[in-house]
Design brief:
354 residues; mainly alpha; 75% helix
Length: 354
Amino acid sequence: MIDYLRKVAREIDELIRNDPFPESVRPEYLRSAVRDYPGRGGKRIRPALLIWSCAMLGGSEEAALYPAAAAEVFHNWTLVHDDIIDRDVSRRGAPTCHVTLAEEMKQFPLDDEARERSGRDFAILAGDLQQGWANDLLLRSVEHGVPPRVVLALSRKLQKLANAALITGEALDVEFSLRPITELSASQIREMLYLKTGALLRFCAEAGAMIALNTDSAEPEEVKILGEFAAAAGIAFQLRDDYLGLFGDYSSLGKPLGADLREGKATILLLTTLQMASGEDKAVLTDLIGRAEYSPTDLDTVRRIMHDSGATAMIDAETAQLAERARNLLREFPDNIYRQCLIDLINFLINRER
């Protein structure tokens, strides 16, 4: 699977690097920002999901390439805006978009506050342009073997499923951080996780199936099953992501540990810990939520409480159950190398260290 994933990554990297869409963007530093996140590489999971779903059903990998690149660029604009909202300073081991653009503002006579605000303003514009770039890539898949009626259906699906659903998930994530986590339920957080992460993964799987079947309908059974597979995989992916946000390694993740805790973000891991921890540990953990900075000792304390409460074991079990559901859904399809790649992808997502 890793070799196939690297192949997808190389193809997507080359397409994005050479695509002409950003060339007309001015000023130059904004054009560079538009290309920045999509050009940083990454795992390219979403393109792989789309291409492999298509190929598993007998579709053309070449025809799926532009929709796959569209999904990747779409994903990256959400990261740009997410980093602004979360006030993150690093992404994939490099400065975030708004931080880089704030540095560009040093060429103007601005104080620090104005420089940071302008950096954020330009980063918002970079994300907006990336969303336009994603739509353009998808529409241009007509020129690469995808029938116009299928492209139109995929464009509608991208706006409804990935766009409206994903932004709703992000909005709920922000709102939940404004409320005491004890007022939230695990089902509310799971719904938010699906919308924020699973919706775009679902688009990728369903889009691949629709291209393979040459249909503008999401009603065929194959499309529905792959959508359910991706939804389960998406929540499992996010549960692992939340775990790594505290138990991972900065050098692997490329972003600071404890960011969700600092923001008071509602994660199932944190909620489960608060529900299961002893009275003393619960008080200690509650006091640690929302701090501006965390020492290594603080993070060790959080990890110890999560482990001792049994919360990490419970989240591990839920992640494993979701992964098994996803694998079982894939077994509805004939055995071939692409089905195996998707099964291996599930294993990769829940066992990854970054």
